[in-house]
Design a protein that fits this description.
The chain is an alpha/beta fold and 293 residues long. It is 38% helix and 17% strand. Strand 2 (90-99) and strand 3 (105-111) form a beta hairpin. The longest helix is centred in the N-terminal third of the chain and has 22 residues, at 33-54. The protein starts with 5 loop residues before the first helix and ends in a 16-residue tail after the last helix. The model has no long low-confidence stretch (mean pLDDT 91).
């Protein structure tokens, strides 16, 4: 089986995490779009497992959670009228948890914005943290039951709700929200330090995700056509963000700041780890002649 060399595969993954679309990557690297698509799937599966195995035993202090919107195949309002329905079509939400001090992306989950997804996401985040934390979320009510179920009373939890003014006539019908006129902080559980109740870090991290993933770009045709590929790209991005990208303020990667790594990783190392993790195919057995009757 023909396989791209390590350098080319590393280049493709790096370009995908720098905001390039799959077809532009295909053109720039002179590779087939099917090759790029297959690498996306293979790397996505590996990166999901890599994150799951490596981001464990996190010593966190202040954690912020949020959801970032995108869509698959069509926006929710247009799904019913699709000529060729696609599984998973409609609004697609990516849940993220950021440690405020180290900027570590502790957990990510792609799905809906309902209580079941909130429960899965918060439980996954809780399983990776070893100590009591202060948690801040927005006012999404699905967090209330999810946090209670995952942490009980062993957490300092507060919600931050942003207050918006009237939507200007010029902004009606657009995706841009009205101007934020204030915030409301509400203690939910424990004794959170209200001075540190904020979602600024996670919202800025989500902006980085939107800027570095073509699938999240608004008002274009670059949206995900398959739900699974969207999840694969988020998994690849999470590894890049935590282990490869040097944070401008920290001057190290979030994984290094969190004590999970000693060095900055490269895409070549990730590709080599993928190859080492891939199942080994033994020699083919002898051909058996079919008995045609």
């Amino acid at each position: 089986m023909n396989k791209l060399d390590t350098k080319t595969r590393a280049q493709i993954l790096a370009m995908l995490c720098e905001g390039a679309s799959m077809r532009s990557v295909s053109r720039l690297t002179d590779t087939s779009i099917n090759t790029v698509s297959k690498l996306l799937v293979d790397a996505g599966r590996f990166c999901a497992g890599f994150h799951d195995a490596k981001v464990r035993g996190v010593k966190a202090s202040k954690v912020q959670v949020d959801e970032i919107w995108s869509f698959t195949a069509a926006k929710e309002k247009n799904v019913a009228s699709m000529k060729a329905p696609v599984d998973g079509a409609g609004d697609t939400w990516t849940w993220t948890a950021i440690e405020a001090g180290t900027k570590l992306l502790i957990s990510h989950f792609v799905g809906g914005r309902d209580g079941e997804c909130a429960k899965w996401f918060i439980e996954d985040m809780a399983s990776r943290i070893t100590n009591r934390i202060q948690l801040t979320s927005d006012g999404h009510k699905a967090y209330l039951e999810a946090v209670e179920g995952a942490f009980g009373a062993d957490i300092d939890y507060a919600m931050l709700v942003k207050l918006y003014g009237a939507t200007p006539e010029s902004a009606k019908g657009r995706y841009s929200p009205a101007d934020c006129t204030g915030i409301k902080k509400t203690k939910i559980e424990g004794k959170p330090d209200m001075a540190h109740v904020s979602t600024s870090y996670v919202e800025r991290a989500n902006l980085t995700m939107r800027m570095h993933n073509r699938r999240f770009t608004r008002l274009t045709n670059a949206f995900s056509k398959k739900f699974e590929n969207h999840a694969h790209m988020v998994a690849i991005y999470a590894v890049w963000y935590n282990w490869l990208r040097i944070h401008k303020t920290l001057r190290v990667t979030p994984a290094m700041a969190a004590g999970l790594s000693d060095t900055v990783m490269t895409w070549e190392q990730i590709v080599q780890a993928m190859d080492a993790d891939a199942p080994k195919h033994g020699p083919r057995g002898p051909y058996k002649k079919k008995d045609h009757k």
